[in-house]
From TrEMBL:
Species this protein is from: Monoraphidium neglectum
One of the Pfam families matching this protein, by short name: MutS_V
Lineage of the organism: Eukaryota, Viridiplantae, Chlorophyta, core chlorophytes, Chlorophyceae
Annotated Gene3D superfamilies: P-loop containing nucleotide triphosphate hydrolases
Keyword ATP-binding: yes
Chain residue ranges for the region called Disordered: 55-76
PANTHER family associated with the record: DNA MISMATCH REPAIR PROTEIN MSH6, DNA MISMATCH REPAIR PROTEIN MUTS FAMILY MEMBER
Protein name: DNA mismatch repair protein Msh6-1
GO molecular function: ATP binding; ATP-dependent DNA damage sensor activity; mismatched DNA binding
Length: 427
């Protein structure tokens, strides 16, 4: 009887108890976030979460803020960017503040939107830190929007209406769905729900099917996110050909130079051995030598191509003409999968054979790409012909073939030069 009376009194004040539980939960959460910020290794900062569509007139005071926790993450006093963006300086992973093996975690600057490309096409070696970078960007966005401090020197971002992540591999065998189907089903949900103010992260989309189909699907999804959804995000892939796919520039604002909708970057690494055909020490159980390249992971987000190991090679007319200083560089040349095979302990003969087959495929693919470029680009063909004729003029002069031969070679060169001018004008 007394128990029932106590229950009735408790229920009668259920609103009071509900408010007390809610207050205790909020207090516990805030104390946990504050304790995590105080106990964290390295610099922690209070993020700035801004209006997704700021008004330039109403934002004059914020634009003049000094650099630091209250200033812009890019360290400038320029007007705040219009549109969605995510700018972080020296961002670290909140759960991996110390690197593996006792080393320090390598922080990175990440800029999405707001004068930078909205999407980063992220390449790099296996185990190079791509997935970790995707996770730390998404976690930083969550921490910022719940009011927590973030493991970075500075973070400024616009409020995101959702974070969509496609990562990992699993099937749903009970309903007959393969790993690839589940992957595309989740990607389809992302494309249907993500908006311009969303943050997306995709890790190795298209790996569950044939290389050609997977690369085609990945390219189409990247193009949709860049030009239809127009959201901020990161797209990690081992399909290096995506970095050469056309991604037209986003419209410029206020007369500023336009940034590409998507730009390639990579996780830097140092490569040694294997490239010149001489074997490096193998890590497999079979002993002996392996021709696989040894890769040292630097975990640094890089937007310029790193020089390759080995002696520098003289440029050929084709490599000079294919180079374009106006392109955003940053794609990793390869994924160095045989290095992971060596680290994982595959027998050295298996690793060596894999490296040999990989080099053969790369040589075949590069030759096919050069032939395709020559076949499809009349300007490139005309320029190469001009180079060949110029070499003929030089050879005739060096060999002392006489005035007539030199004059004929010079006339051929001038004709090729005119053809190149006409091809350039037509382009």
């Amino acid at each position: 009887m007394k128990l029932q009376s106590l229950e009735r009194k408790f229920v009668a004040r259920r609103a009071l108890w509900s408010d007390a539980v809610e207050a205790a939960a909020v207090l516990d959460t805030l104390m946990a976030l504050a304790g995590a910020a105080l106990a964290a290794e390295g610099v922690m900062s209070r993020p700035r979460v801004l209006d997704p569509l700021p008004s330039p007139a109403a934002d004059g005071a914020a634009a003049a803020a000094p650099n630091g926790a209250e200033g812009d993450a890019n360290g400038t006093n320029a007007a705040r960017p219009v549109g969605p963006f995510f700018h972080a300086t020296q961002l670290r992973h909140p759960a991996l503040l110390s690197g593996g093996g006792g080393g320090a975690f390598v922080p990175n600057d990440v800029r999405l939107g707001g004068g930078a490309p909205r999407l980063l096409l992220l390449t790099g070696p296996n185990m190079g830190g791509k997935s970790t970078l995707l996770r730390q960007v998404c976690l930083a966005a969550v921490l910022a929007q719940i009011g927590a401090w973030v493991p970075a020197e500075a973070l400024t971002m616009t409020a995101m209406d959702g974070i969509f992540v496609r990562m990992g591999a699993r099937d749903n065998i009970l309903v007959g769905q393969s790993t690839f189907f589940v992957e595309l089903n989740e990607t389809g949900a992302m494309l249907a729900r993500a908006t311009q103010h969303s943050l997306v992260a995709l890790d190795e989309l298209g790996r569950g099917t044939a290389t050609l189909d997977g690369a085609a699907i990945a390219s189409a999804v990247l193009d949709h996110l860049a030009h239809t959804t127009k959201c901020c995000g990161l797209f990690a892939t081992h399909y290096h050909q995506l970095s050469s796919s056309p991604h037209p520039d986003a419209p410029a604002a206020d007369g500023e130079a336009a940034a590409p909708a998507a730009a390639p970057m990579h996780m830097a690494c140092a490569v040694a051995g294997g490239g010149d055909g001489e074997g490096a020490d193998g890590g497999g159980s079979g002993g002996g030598k392996s021709s696989a390249q040894e890769v040292t992971f630097l975990y640094q987000l890089t937007e310029v191509d790193e020089p390759q190991a080995g002696p520098p090679q003289p440029p050929t007319p084709l490599t000079v003409l294919l180079a374009s200083p106006t392109n955003w560089t940053g794609a990793c040349p390869k994924s160095y999968g045989t290095n992971v095979a060596r680290l994982a302990g595959l027998p050295a003969p298996v690793v060596a054979r894999a490296a040999e087959v990989s080099r053969a495929h790369e040589a075949h693919a590069s030759g096919g790409a050069a032939a395709a470029a020559l076949a499809s680009d009349p300007l490139l063909r005309a320029a190469l012909e001009c180079v060949r004729r110029a070499k003929r003029v030089a050879a005739a002069a060096v060999a002392g073939e006489g005035d007539a031969a030199g004059a004929a070679a010079l006339a051929e060169f001038e004709g090729a030069q005119q053809a190149a001018r006409e091809a350039l004008a037509a382009a």
